[in-house]
Amino acid sequence: MTPFRLSRSASGRLVLTTAEGQVHEGVAVVRAFPIGAPDEGVALVSAEGRELAWLDRIADLEPGSRELVEEALASREFMPEIRRLVRVSSFATPSTWDVETDRGDTSLVLGGEEDIRRFGRDALLIEDIHGIHYLIRDLGKLDRTSRKLLDRFL
Question: 8 - beta bridge partners?
Fold first, then answer.
């Protein structure tokens, strides 16, 4: 059982009520490790930026609070996960990539090879020229064509 309760205000803002009855409206949910351990280490932060509560694991929350935390994270974070590289305009940068993501098909412009960062052995974070981050969670799960295209930039 968590020592707090989560709810939504009439205006849709996240509200945390502590076991002592203190109410904090406008709470933000922040992942500590969004790529390496997305379901572990989550902070509930006040509107002033103070940590109000720490969650070791999202799964430990009761269903209603877990849904509120997941909704808050989804609305805060926008990091499409690349499932497949369809085509690249050039192997020199800048180049336009046509990709399939978990949020649909799109195009991104890679400004330079330094905009591809490796996380661990299998994950990549790609930043396009507009500052949007795209995630490849597991290089081994990409199809052969995608890996071949990507290898030209790594």
Answer: 14
